[in-house]
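Sequence only, no structure available. Ideas?
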Amino acid sequence: MKNKKESTSAERIYKIFIYVALLTLAIVIIVPVAWVFMAAFKENREFYGNPWTLPAGLYWQNFVNAWNTAKMGEYMLNSVLVTALALLILLAVALPAAYCLSRFNFRGRKFLNGCFMAGLFINVNYIVVPIFLMLRDGDLWLTKMIGKGFLLNNLIVLAIIYAATALPFTIYLLSGYFATLPHDYEEAAYIDGASYRRAMWDIIFPMAKPSIITIILFNFLSFWNEYIISMTLMSSATGQKTLPVGLLNLMQAQQSAAEYGMMYAGLVLVMLPTLILYICVQSKLTEGMTVGGLKG
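Reply:
I predicted one. Tokens follow.
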């Protein structure tokens, strides 16, 4: 009886510790985000008082100035195009590749899996310079051949680079999920005369919807917030910068101009799409990481 009481007491203390830790983590994350949203509606004169005071009103002109004057609208459009194109390219390559690697045995399968696994340990920030040099040399060769290069300062090429660097993690996650799915449905489809492609599209992909949503969310966040590759490959394209690069330029310019409200409005414009997407798919996120196969 005494051991049971001690066990119950220890379990209660453990739960309290977990709740306190989670509450502290939530406060650490929510408070800065809420402060940025609050500061985005303040006028410049309000920043010279108590930073924790609520804005006197909703000063929407900060967002108008950030969107038009600071060209955040143009940068956001560039980020939307690059992110959407990169996700399309990534899914078009990663989904069939992960399906083949996880569902079929063929010569070279282990080697390909090993290559993708090795790619997980390569930080893309470490290979930005080789990528830049490769594209620069390609532009020099194209300039000699056709008189013009198009590999650098090109949003389409930037999207391709994003998709290529995300392939190892995406294929690793998808193939691990696909491998847990039973072969019964595919075999039944083959008996009914379905091809491999139709079985993949009509059976495996719908069953793997939670995992696909997960990799879309992860890669969207990665592409949307990426800075180093975009800054390096789009250094000479003043009108084709993505949102993180444009935001940094805005922050550097407005700190000296003391236009803090416009700066924080730009921060909100960067964060808002990711917050909206996360709220829409949060119920599928955990499921995509943990659930596989059939229940029962």
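The chain has one domain: 63-290.
Hope that gets you unstuck.
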